[in-house]
Amino acid sequence: MQPEREIVNTEKIAARRLSLEEVTKLGVKDRIFVSADTAELKLPDCYVPAFLTKSGEDFEGGSITARTIFQEEVSCLPDDENEAGIYLADENGSVTIEVLQSAGVVLDLALFVPGGDRGSLTALYAAARQAFGADIVQIWRQGLKEVPDVKVDIFEEQIPRGRKASDSPKRDRRAIDTYPTRADFIDFSAGWKPVVEIHRPVVDDTPTI
Prior knowledge:
Blueprint: E1 10-17, H1 20-23, E2 32-35, E3 46-52, E4 64-68, E5 73-76, E6 87-89, E7 95-100, H2 118-132, E8 152-158, E9 171-177, E10 192-198
């Protein structure tokens, strides 16, 4: 006799399976449930909250792509009986599904510590452990680098296309910051490139009375 499989931190909810036609009527804000079974983590018969990557009507063919709350993209064929399918919470639903819950979050931050040294970082970690409990906060990845004390302007500049590209490409300012590393964390528009320049304040030479 095999031992009963146990998955921690799950919740059983009433739901109903959606057909492809029903999925095409959903938007990106509609909460759905898709299979939690992935190549990295085998969780058969378990589901996870997710949202469509685009409105259902915008998908072509029978394949639907959703992004889970754990930031994984999964594709499935709702009408394929051999696949887990897509479910919607429904108190009157005919099935009960087991939904994987979130145990917490992993923070991936660009954290600036003024004058930061080993002592200040140790104090920062100690404060986090005091707030959330000893042995709870773990440092999974730590990358430290000094940042220059300089103010910069961060622009995004349109990438020229074709032979008749203008000598003065269009430019929009995104931010003024005290160090240039912020550009690493800005999502620039498609067809635009980041430009970082030393900030030069505008000087008004207009005479005053």
